[in-house]
Amino acid sequence: MPDLYILGAGCSRNYSQSIHRIEGLKSPLNQDFFRMSQLVIKNTGMKSDPLFMEAIETLIRTIAPMYGSSKSDLEFFNDPQLNLEDVMTLLDIEFRLFSSRLPVRLRQYENPCLRTLKELLARTLDYALKGPPCRKHQTLARRMKTGDVVLSFNYDILIDNALLSLGKITDYTYRMDFFKVNHEGRWANLDEKQSEVTLLKLHGSLNWIRCGFCKALMLYRYEKQTMSGEWGFKCPRCSSGETYAERMMVPPAQSKEYGDQDIAFLWVQADRMLKDFSRLVCLGYSFSPLDSDMTSLLRRFRARQVKMPEVDFVNPDPEAKQRLKSLLGVKKITQYDDLFSYLESTG
After folding, report:
1. Which residues contact 308 (CB under 8 A, 6 or more apart)?
2. How far are the Cα atoms of 126, 127, 233, 281, 327 from residue 86, in angstroms, in the given order?
């Protein structure tokens, strides 16, 4: 039988080959994202980009009062109250419920501050993961076999590139209705051959772009970050430029609301695929009780099982382990502190 893998931000934290030379910078977790992004802004040429820094200042002025802070500079990002999911959710709800939206003709479908935050997230991940492909993810990818399913909550594409380099996934693996794929700056038709491994990214991905004008979805192969650098975005369907490009990195509130049909479709696909597995491997995901969509998905999975699979849990947090045991109703879970120890112990 196939195996099921669940990947969270703690899995990407295992990346140890970075060449950025920024002291203290690691692949961000929910609770330290703003501190990591501050390191990137202060130690790169980002501060010389006046338009982006103006957007960052607007972001800070918008959210600081909501956290009881009078700070208006980057020091606000050190506030211990901040975490990425809360701020993304706050900005999403503020726009959808409490703001007067711009006319539809302007195609303003998301909070401008949320757009800025997504761009900051993309740039932070780009610098934190700057370097060669992750050896640990490549080792993990080699173990994945035909029929395995990966549920990823990570925006980065460490596991994507590892699987793609081994020929284990095609463009079809994501189960997304992409219009075109971009490879080395050129638009092409998708490789629709069946994929050995299914990879469902339930919160979106750095290499997914949606045109805000015609709503076409695009996939960038290999790219950690798009819409910057040598190849600017130009929609291959309607020729709209970067102004209309939307990063498909949905805040947690979006998936809970099911307002995004493409992401909602992925959750339906995940539910259909969670059938019989010989092993469940959870890497760096905490199973927070606030993730009600994932809780519902796993409870539906549990209801269909005659016998629960064996569970490997790669996360040092004992409370997260207990939450998973309760969700699945299993008595035994084998726990590992990090990806290296898991790969070494089970190799």
Report:
1. 302, 328, 329, 330
2. 22, 23, 29, 27, 23
Distance CA 171, CA 167 (A): 11
CA distances from 249 to 136, 207, 209, 226, 229 (A): 24, 9, 9, 12, 20
User: To 10 degrees, the CA torsion angle through 61, 62, 66, 71?
Assistant: -10
**108: containing domain:** 30-128
Q: Are residues 199 and 289 in the same domain?
A: yes
Q: Identify whether the C-beta of residue 208 lies closer than 8 Å to the C-beta of residue 262.
A: no
Which value, in Å, is the radius of gyration of the alpha carbons in the chain?
20
The answer on 103 and 144 residing in a single domain is no
Is pLDDT at 254 greater than 60 in this prediction?
no
Does residue 199 sit in the same domain as residue 271? yes
Q: What is the pLDDT of residues 80-129, one digit of tens each?
A: 999 999 999 899 888 878 876 555 444 556 788 998 999 999 999 999 99
Contacts of 230 (CB under 8 A, 6+ apart): 185
Burial of 51 (0-12, 13-18, 19+ CB in 10 A): exposed
* 127 three-state secondary structure: helix
pLDDT digits (tens, 9 = 90+) for 190-201: 988 999 999 999
